[in-house]
Hints:
single chain, alpha/beta, Nucleotidyltransferase, domain 5, six-stranded mixed beta sheet, 48% helix
Amino acid sequence: MPNYDIVDNYKDLLIQPASELFTRAQKTSRYLRPLVIEIGSNGVRIVTPSGESEREPLRLASYVFDDGDDTIRKPINKKGFDALADVIKIALQRTKASGSSHVCCVATSALRETPNREFILEKIYKKTGILIQCISGDLEARLIARAVLLSTPEEKSFFVVDVGGGSLEIIAIKNRKVKKHFSAPLGSVTLKELTTRQISKRLKDKMFTKVESLLSDSFGDGEIPKIAYVTGGNPKDLIKLVTDGKNERDRVSLKELAAYLPTLAKKSRSQLLALGLRTDRVDVIVNASHALIDTLKKLGADEVRAPNTGLQSGIYDCAFGSLPNRDRFLNQSRLKAELLYLQQQLGFEVYNFASSKKAISESLGNRIKNIHSRTFRPYALIYASTFLRDIGYAVMTRGKHPIRGAELLEKLGICSLSRKENIVLSWLVRHHEVESDTKEKIQTPSEAKLTKKEALLVMRLLKALQESQKLARST
């Protein structure tokens, strides 16, 4: 029987093989193609293996939280359960359509705090096969912080404020480390029916003392950062409205947000819908904005930024070792996970991989670090080609192992690499044993449509790979 306790450590997040969710006739990927389901208090977000994010409306918070008394938690009724089950069925359809190999399903405050949590989770598991894992408020804050840190490499110290449907998370980052964080039951849906004065009083009672403690414990007498990154649908929509929907401008001043709030409060539902807001946000965005602005004022933040990331990216990263945006971030752990998963599916072990990896790190050094390209990720390609060389050797029945490894790659592909990177990788695997001083002139792959500069970089990668293979054979 599955465990329905609240998860407080990301290492305890469970991943379900997609093959367990479908009949034997349903084909699932041999490669690691993960799918993430984040069940929030005001919607469900599904992140597919390609990194595409889809959102399904589901206001679970309205079944759990009481607008008048924030200490009351109601059990989810049959209507709420049916709505949740329908969204889970949609997620299963996405899993089939995307050819996902594994699924990680996580829920936040609404399901975490409902009195009949275990009953609902068990019923969903028996009906759909999906294991929903409720994460603690602390883990939710840490996952959000992880996602923001990966998307903001230029900043060292800042705040992260997440306004969800059922809770509000505040995280203090100093020198790119999480110093302190906390979660409060002050989400957009829980504040929906309150007046401005009631919101301010609830923030003062539930949160402001914690904010003062967070500031003193995190920064002491040092300088308090003036930048805050905000996540969640309502804060991002608010910034879009303030900036007239200009996507290139993802930051505003706190004064701009505060000045726009009275204008936002006067708009009717039809006017908000005309501005492009979702139907499940038009009735909560005003009060959520009040809570956000009061919190930012208490923190002392002057500049507000909205990164293109959130909780689902943190879940994705911790559960599968990578972010969906593979073009912007180089995280080797997902690539390694894909290759190891392929090895497991083929039913053999790559005995030389440890020595090959050691050879890479010892022989390449600064040579690889100096190869920069917006199109290719040098270490990822060297790493994968070394592994595929060993795979080709292990499964070789005829011919040469570089050709066998390249054929295997061309047949399956690696989803954490782009199409151009897969083409270059296959070429590297085919030619990695050709001596660099050979008279034969090696042509770069024409199907990759490389520029002259890219072709030169690829040739440098090949020479580096040949050098690493020589060292691997000598170890």
